[in-house]
Fold these 2 entries.
Entry 1:
Amino acid sequence: MKIMSYPSEAKTDRSLSLIVLFAGTLFISASLMFALQPLFGKILLPLLGGSPAVWNTCMVFYQSILFLGYLYAHAISTRFNQHRQIQIHAVIILISFLALPVALPENTAPPTESDPTFWLLWTLFLAIGLPYFVVSTTAPLIQKWFANVGHHTSHDPYYLYAASNTGSLIALLSYPFLLEPAIGLANQKTYWSIGYIILCLLIAGCAFVLWKTRQNTVIVQDISLKENNLGLYRKLRWMALAFVPSSLLLGLTNFISTDIASVPLLWIIPLTLYLLSFVIVFSKWNDRIHPLMVRLQPVVLLPFIAYAFINPADLPYWAYLCLHLLAFFFAVMVCHGELAKDRPHTRYLTTFYLIMSFAGMLGGMFNTFVAPFIFNGIYEYPIMIVAALLLRPGTVLSLNKGLLLQIIAPALLVIAGLVLYTSGMELLQYFDLIVISLIALTFLTYLLRRRPVAYALLTGAIIFLSLGLHGLSSHTLYQERTFFGVLAVRESILTDEHNQPEKYHELFHGTTKHGAQRLAANLARIPLTYYSRPGPMGQLFKEFDNNNKNWKIGIVGLGAGALACYAKSTQDWTLYEIDPLVVDIANNTDYFSYLKLCAHKTTMRIGDARLSLEKEPDQKFDLLVLDAFSSDSVPTHLLTQEALELYFKKLKPGGILAFHITNRHLLLKKVLSIHAEHLHLAALIQEFKPQQNIPLVVATDWVVMAKNPETLAPLSLSRLGNWHKMPLYFDMKPWTDDFTNIVSIWK
């Protein structure tokens, strides 16, 4: 026990108005914070090709500024008296007004030849750094002030954190369903700036209440020994419990946004669950809910382990997504529940939040700066699932016989897998047996749920053995990870017309095939998959074969380079690709030889297509092909009205725009149909399905557009394919750079 000085609480205030003022300030602050995140993510996406890494990098920035805000709140609340805290904070707020209204710096453009991560962080700092810093200081500082205003609940202000996270949740859910569909980006920036001024007035109100609080102190006994014991182990445990959910958040976000679309709606789903966990665990219900979460987590993980990594093809995408979201939610609920259980006395409130924010920042930095350089796939995601299981209550890591026994089963499983892999056995002939065995082992994990080390390590062994098995079965020749995603070249086998096995190569971005090539010399020039000769692209080039001898053609999105095999020696082709690694793969004849065999007069442009096209002369192209995908999603900034106006500005009066819109989840033809109506363009669509079983010819959807119907008449009149007019839609506004709404085109 020690004797300490604390503000007098002889007279406690029971007024509801104090709670309303302080909780309202936290609510508005959190709402502004989490409205700004998707807002600026959406503003920056067009500059970087719609890559999901844009959001992850933005999250690192937000987490870093949040940490600096918490560090600032901790510093001034522990080193200065209340009056001086108010004075310092007033100066910081006044300086932040220089950044209003929030907007991107003028004439900003990302680098094209290098990783744009640091450019993105610097741009965010210049655009919103100061206001976001002030917003970030609010949660710990206002709660600390509330702890000193003499209210009867001041001894435990953590419940205000639930109000803060409720504001975050409402802002996040409002963005895709209310703000994004109804308000353009320009107005969103203006309204946010107005909201920021309102927040500053509320902070001034809280400061006024604190200023009036008597500064007298009384002598009281120190807090309990446990509360006074902020040892290194306890702080490291707080860090681990905050680090793992933060890393999981970005890992899951990367998974979701890669395979559907890089839009705020989908980024918001895991972030909403993440914030919901804070609302629940810092509420009065956590004592009852947390034990339930701990008991249910192993049940939820059974199907997740059995299917999410072992055999996802057997599930519809929505079920696959739900498994990941459920596993994520239970993992963060258990981690954050443990964090809330161990929260300290209000004397250490800012220290607690500071450690939480620091660990959250480290989690984001690990996913953004470390993982891409040490992993060639999104392996940090399953690693953090295992780490979350290690943090379950009951884990003891002291070296003893019990710990060694818990490690034996996972170690034996890993050793068996390595022995089989290195023994030279043809494992693929036993693929089904191995998969069934791994699924059976998932039930063993459930039996070990009360032994966290054995449970976590066995789960990790199953996940990584199953991932390795799929890598083996897919015959991956090359895999690498960049800012724009994971690229893989795989070797597959098909049976030719003589029932002989024939090898071919495929290019994958994420889980989506972006091209394929047969290897035999007499077949290597044949465009395949979405670009096949029987398909829409083959029909277009065949129909205009007699008058396209001197065409100038632009291709946005390189892939494996298959479209180049439609090129004639007299044509000029310009290829646009945002990811330098795609260019390297397409030029590497060990993987694909389309460019070497077919490309004649071609120019390569690296960088975002819209930014690159801006620099091209007007009326340059006879044909412009839009085939830009990030995994299965088309970057939304390439689908706006301004984008189409740019394309037609670069096309000759009789030029043709061809748009690849094959997509599992989004009805992209709806966006283009509405543009065609508003811009008075002629448009035809073909949703191609191969009539014969031709190897590597796949179903694909293409739209062609022109200023005059006569330009497309040869296609519509030809018998080469089922080209027809676009269907009409009247239930959606045209997409613009200021307005997009992904909800309205969900299939």
Entry 2:
Amino acid sequence: MTIIEQIISTHSVGKPVKPGDIVDVFIDTRAARDFGGANVVKNILDNGLGLADAAKTIFTFDCNPGGSDQKYAQNQHYCRQYAREKGIRVYDVDSGVGTHLAIDSGLAWPGSTFVSTDSHANIMGAIASFGQGMGDQDIAAAWAKGAVWFKVPASVKINLKGSRPSNVSAKDIILNLLGIFGANRLLGYSVEIYGDATEKFTLDERITISSMGTEMGAILIIFPTNQAVLAELKKITGKDYPMITADADAVYEQTFDLDLSTFVPMVAKPGHPEDDTAVENVRNKKIDSGFIGSCTNGRIEDLRIAASVLKGRKVAPGVVLKIVPSTNDIWNQALDEGLIKTFKEAGAMVSNAGCAGCAAGQVGQNGPGEVTISTGNRNFEGKQGKGFVYLASPATVAASAVAGFITTPDQIPAKPAEFGNSAILKSVVKEKIRTNKPNVVEGRVWIIQKDNIDTDMIFHNRYLTITDIREMGQYSFDNLRGYEDFAKKAKAGDIVMTGKNFGAGSSRQQAVDCFISLGISCIMAESYGAIYERNAINAAMPILTYKPEIIASLDLKDADLVRVDFEHGGIVNLRNNKAGTVEKFYDAQMAIYKNGGLL
């Protein structure tokens, strides 16, 4: 049998299996991440399922270890609560990438089985383990039963012959392989890699190559173990592991002989990991940012390579370099070895361990139009942000960050490239037609008798990245208890009437603009937060103050139609024609209002 057939056999029927057989496979370690973990728990609870073995079940919070996204924070907390109840081990936000933790903690080992909601769980092929990324229902089934059904895949063998060029890294090797096989030529296969040069591949290098089996469409890229790798694993975990190799008479559907000596430093062009080309073909392409990390290149060897390039150098002016070790232990090792100091002195940003930008996580994303060179495993459109992502090795990324353009360590210029005036950010002044803003408005009143309504209640900070005022209205008051549906019920022309210190808190302009977006005709409050008052006046949003007794004297009720006079400070309840006074606009306020805003 091939390696994968051996592993599936020993974890299922206990007798030889062949491609196409469908068997229930016992899973040694069953993981769920902060991405998908909450759905796994929900599937368990919604279907009344139990937990087969808490000791073989783990959570790994690696996609967004900062919890900087509200949904991630919510899901992480939900999973923690379930873990406490069931006695499940949580590798929390201070731990790092789950697949790497599994290897380094002995949760996966040569000959073992491992599943996770991480599509790169097949990284376990680096240690001759059968790892698989699976969906929420599959993982829930594994948690509940301890096993999942699987169809035995056919295997192919790749023989890497010849000597490895000194400037070709493990990342270059997998990018060369992707360039040869594309994203579907080896679809659904288990790929075993052999060759004299591969015997010298370190554990970290094997992890890099195996981590991109998913991008190749393979079930996994798997290496047979050797004494050197087993020694590395023992050093990390303190455990002895068996030698795992294919049988001498194992059957492969295809065998490919490739000349490793012809491989060159490569990059994947934006959009497709398999759209690969030699670095030479894109050399001098200007970049905005670089990223070193992910499950593909966040190991200690990767960081050492990056540090060797950055030592005594500076990141190019205007370029941002972000570095994220894959685990907290690797982070600490990098600190002990002085690598973190080198990164900081070079001008790089170093973040806590995790998947980072590769999973649109805590650091490493890019913005629209931004050109990034990254050591991640994917560069699908939108995967690492809304810019353009080239994939490359740590050495190429570090060299490019210093040069300011895509290059290799041997061709870093004495003077980095600088950004010119690209004329992209032209100021386009739209002709504004001044309209006669009304001094008197009529509208349906919302009486919200609450004091100290702060800007987070008005427009929560999770929406602060919105810059188009047309999108802001829908979020008005959605964090104010009892008024979460305000935006759906409000109509253009409505008037908001509230208590003391309205708009307390931050300086966010959106807390004013959201009402302009909805077409609210004016806001009346007993008093305002100082910054909020200025923001509203400067945005030509009519705000007035009133004495609290006016509500009783006019017999004001929710949804009454009222008329407000900004110039003279009059207010009339049109339901009963009772009239009163509010503070009128002062001169500067009226001038700004008539001007359509401060600007």
